[in-house]
Amino acid sequence: MKKFLATLVLSACALSGLAHAGTVDDAVKRGTLRVGMDPTYMPFEMTNKRGEIIGFEVDLLKAMAKAMGVKLELVSTSYDGIIPALLTDKFDMIGSGMTLTQERNLRINFTSPFIVVGQTLLIRKDLQGEIKSYKDLNASKYRITSKIGTTGEMVAKKLIAQAQYHGFDNEQEAVMDVVNGKADAFIYDAPYNVVAVNKAGAGKLVYLPEPFTYEPLAFGLKKGDYDSINWINNWLLQIQKDGTYDRIHAKWFENTNWLKDME
Predict the structure, then answer these.
(1) Which of these CATH numbers, 2.60.40.420, 3.40.190.10, 3.90.870.10, 3.40.50.2000, describes 20-116+216-261?
(2) Is beta strand 143-145 parallel, antiparallel or unpaired with respect to 115-117?
(3) pLDDT tens digits for range 40-51
C-alpha cells in the first residue's frame, strides 16, 4: 500500500510539473523567446532595406521578451505553414498578424487580442464608382486576389464566391496583380491596405476603407498552455495601462517615418 501511495504522489508531482510547463517557462529557462512570423505584413512585421525585421508586432514582442528577461528570436516562416511549424516545435509561439478564428482555435490556443482590424479593398482606379463595396465584386466577370492562407483568402472565397479567385504567396505579388490590371481587387487587412495604396499603388489603385469583417489579431500558442496565456494576457493589460502600447501603436500607425527605412 505504501509503495502504491508513493507511486501516486510521484505521478501527481510529475503531472503538476507538466501542468506548469509552457512557452513562458521554457523561454525563461532557455533565455530566448522564439516567435514564428511571416515578415511581409505592413506595418506589423516586415523586412527593411538592411534586412532587419521591424514593425508594430515586432516591437510588441520585443517588449514582451524584455518583460520576461529573455532575448527575442524571430523565426521567418511561410504563413500557410505557420501553424504546423508551431505544432512541431519550430518555435514557441506565433506572432504574425494572425486573426483569431474559430477554425484556427480548434488547432491552437490564442491570447487576448492585441488589436482589431477588418478586411478592406484595393481596387483598380478605373473601377472607382463601379465597385463601392465587396458585394459589387461578387460576379464572375471580376478577378480578385489576396495572400494564400490568410483571412483575406477565406473572406474572398466565402463572401465573394462568384468572382474568380487567384491567390499569391505574399501580399506584394497580389497587390501588383491589381496594379498591372490582371486582377480587379485585392482583399486584405485595413492597416496593410492603407499603406500599400501609396507605397505600391503607383497611382493605379483606390482604397475602399470601410472594413467588412471583424478580425481580432492575437498571439498563437499550443493547446493546453494556459499558464503562458495567463502571463501574456496580464502583460497585455499592463502595457495598455502604462502607456507602452500607445507609444508603440503611435510609432507605426500615426506617422509614416518608418517607410523611409523600407526598400
Answers:
(1) 3.40.190.10
(2) unpaired
(3) 999 999 999 999
